[in-house]
Every structure is written in C-alpha cells, then in structure tokens.
C-alpha cells in the first residue's frame, strides 16, 4: 500500500509544480504584454508631441521627440517617415536622406518615403535624381488612397517640370494624366494649360473644346482655346476665342492683350487666306520695313559687310516701284529678304529678339 500512495503523492506534487509554472508563465506573459502596451502608449505619446512640434514649426524639438519614440518602438515606418520630414524641415537634408535611405532599402516600393526623398533631393539641387524618386513614388505602394496619392504626386512632378521648361518630359507625364485625372473643370483647365506649357497646343485645344462642350460659358476655357489657336498660328480663330472670353470676363487684361496681339498679327500676317496680291505685297513690304528697323536698333555702328548689304538691299526694295503684274513675285522675294535679315539680326546683335512680338511670330510662322 505504501508504494501506490507514494506514487500518487509524487504525481500530485508534480502537477502542482506544473500548475505553478503555468501560472507564473501566465503572469509573466500578462506583465510583458502590459509593459509592451505601456511602452507603445509612451512611444505614441512622444510621436504625437513631435507632430505637434512640427505643426508649430519647432522642427528641432520634433526631431528629438520622434527619435525618442523610435528608440522605444524601433522599426515603425510611420515614425521614420515623419522623422525624415522633421529633419528636412529642420534644415538637415543629409540626415533626412540617411533616414529615408534606411527605409527604402528595407522596402523600395514605399511610395510616401520615395516622395519625401524626391523633395529632399530637389532641395539639394539634384533634379535628375529627384525626378527618379518622383516616379518611384508614383508607381510605389500607398497604404490608403493609392490612386489619389499617385495622381497628386504626378501633378507635383508636372509642376516641377513646367518650372524647369522640360517640355518633352512634361508632355510624357501629361499624357497618362489626361485619362486618369478627375473630370472637374478646374483640373481639366489645369491640364489644358500644362499642354500649352509643354508645347502641345493641339492637345490643349482638344481639352479646352471638351470643357466648352458641356460648359460653353466658361471664360477660362475660351481663353485657353484662344491661346492654343494662337500658338498654332491660327490667329483668326484665336481672335474669335479671345473675343468670346472677354464677353464673359471683360476685366481680364491678359486676355485683352492676347486679343490685341491677334488683331495686330491679322493685319501683318501675309499667309492669311483670302488676301489679294496687292494686300499681300503691302504686308511683305511692312515686314521688310519692321525687320530692317529692328535690326538697325541693335547692330551698333559697324555692322558686318554681309549685314550692311542686306540692309541696303532692303532700303532699295522699299523704294522701288513695282507693277501690279510683278507684285506676287516681289512679295515672295520680300518675305525671303525679311527672313534673311531676321537671321542676320540674331547673329549680329548681343541681345536676342523677343519671341512673342507680332514681327517675331509672323517670321517664325514663315520659317516653318
């Protein structure tokens, strides 16, 4: 009888020990979770204080607070991104770049981190690298509102390229945006204007016509269409568009100046359809006269023999009598002479001619 009782006593004791161990483990786990929760709360508190400091412009203090939060909760990507923003705002782009490099090495598809990196590199004057990171942000991963965020980044890149007059790159970014962007009028007008900046007036005209198809009283769209037609050299259509815009918004001085330029060009352009030989001849003489005056104003006292010869020839052509029979023939030679003088003026004068004057625009149109 003694042996079975001893066995049961051992098993009971062993069970109690196991139960005690389990209880201790449960208590330890509970305490560890409680401590973890408390540290998470502390990290979150420090991080939020850092965000508030950033909003107040106290960026150096924000950097310290967010670093303290990261020391508690290492690897939190939201904290690291915000730290990079605070470092950048505090005037430490090198520190921000270092923080972002760590983030992007762990996850190269991080869209928000790529966007911050693009802004940091842009601030440092590293435009090609910045553009590369803008693209990474556009095609990267966004936890929420991915499509809207990607479109917002693309518009930010578009504005950047417009500022740097990067027309080919700008056009390449605009083409996908045209279909993806919201169809609200404000966004569509912005896209049309950007197509003008990118040197694509035909696409701009399509955008503005689209707006006018459902909002025919939109003054901005009429003015934008006028700019598109003006840039294509269709000054008659531009004149009508600017007139329509001014009827809707008569105080817009920029549109009024464009209308005045269109009117002047329509009185000077010898390529307009419907001109008779006499009027075309008169305009060819006017172009020679204006080009000669423009050239004389900038060449100084000692022009080259070649340029002096062109000027003498122009002066003679302006005085030479021409019969009606020869007006068409002489008109062509006058236009050639005006173009030659214009090219010689570009070489001989230190200051380049303004590209947006009626004379320059007509001569540019003739050269195409």
Textual characterization of the structure:
Helix content is about 80%, strand content about 0%. The chain contains 17 helices and no strands. The chain has helices spanning about 1-55, 60-70, 75-90, 95-105, 110-125, 125-140, 145-165, 165-180, 185-195, 200-215, 220-230, 235-250, 255-270, 275-300, 305-320, 325-350, 360-365. It is elongated, with a radius of gyration of 36 Å. The N and C termini lie far apart (about 120 Å).
* Second rung of CATH, namely the architecture of the domain at 183-268: Alpha Horseshoe
SSE sequence, one letter per element = HHHHHHHHHHHHHHHHH
Largest sheet properties: none
Cα shape: elongated
Task: Note poorly predicted spans.
Answer: none
> What level of helicity do the residues show?
over 70%
* Percentage of residues in DSSP E strands: under 5%
Q: Treating each run of at least 4 consecutive H or I residues as one helix, how many helices?
A: 17
What is the residue-averaged pLDDT?
87
| DSSP strand tally | 0
Radius of gyration: 36 Å
Instruction: Report the top-level CATH class of the domain at 183-268.
Output: Mainly Alpha
Helix-strand makeup class: mainly alpha
Would you tell me which CATH topology of the domain at 183-268 applies?
Serine Threonine Protein Phosphatase 5, Tetratricopeptide repeat
According to CATH, the homologous superfamily of the domain at 183-268 is Tetratricopeptide repeat domain
Task: Give the N-terminus to C-terminus distance in angstroms.
Answer: 119 Å
């Amino acid at each position: 009888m003694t042996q079975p009782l001893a066995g049961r006593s051992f098993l009971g004791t062993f069970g109690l020990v196991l139960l005690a161990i389990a209880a201790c483990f449960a208590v330890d786990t509970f305490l560890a979770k409680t401590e973890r929760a408390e540290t998470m709360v502390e990290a979150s508190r420090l991080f939020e204080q850092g965000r508030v400091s950033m909003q107040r412009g106290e960026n150096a203090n924000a950097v310290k607070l967010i670093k303290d939060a990261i020391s508690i909760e290492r690897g939190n990507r939201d904290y690291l991104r915000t730290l990079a923003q605070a470092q950048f705002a505090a005037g430490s782009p090198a520190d921000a770049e270092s923080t972002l490099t760590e983030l992007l090495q762990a996850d190269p598809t991080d869209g928000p981190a790529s966007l911050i990196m693009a802004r940091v590199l842009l601030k440092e004057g590293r435009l090609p690298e910045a553009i590369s990171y803008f693209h990474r942000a556009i095609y990267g991963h966004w936890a929420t509102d991915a499509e809207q965020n990607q479109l917002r980044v693309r518009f930010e890149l578009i504005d950047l390229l417009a500022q740097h007059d990067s027309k080919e790159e700008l056009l390449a970014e605009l083409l996908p945006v045209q279909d993806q962007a919201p169809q609200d009028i404000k966004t569509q007008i912005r896209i049309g204007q950007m197509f003008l900046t990118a040197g694509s007036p035909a696409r701009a005209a399509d955008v503005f016509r689209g707006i006018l198809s459902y909002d025919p009283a939109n003054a901005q769209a009429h003015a934008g269409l006028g700019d598109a037609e003006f840039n294509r050299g269709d000054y008659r259509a531009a004149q009508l568009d600017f007139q329509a815009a001014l009827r809707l918004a008569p105080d817009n001085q920029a549109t009024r100046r464009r209308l005045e330029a269109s009117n002047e060009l329509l009185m000077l352009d010898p390529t307009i359809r419907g001109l008779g030989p006499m009027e075309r001849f008169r305009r060819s003489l006017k172009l020679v006269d204006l080009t000669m005056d423009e050239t004389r104003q900038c060449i100084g006292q000692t022009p080259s023999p070649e340029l002096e010869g062109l000027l003498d020839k122009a002066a003679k052509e302006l005085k030479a009598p021409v019969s009606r029979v020869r007006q068409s023939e002489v008109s062509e030679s006058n236009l050639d002479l005006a173009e030659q003088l214009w090219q010689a003026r570009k070489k001989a004068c230190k200051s380049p001619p303004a590209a947006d004057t009626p004379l320059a625009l007509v001569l540019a149109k003739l050269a195409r």
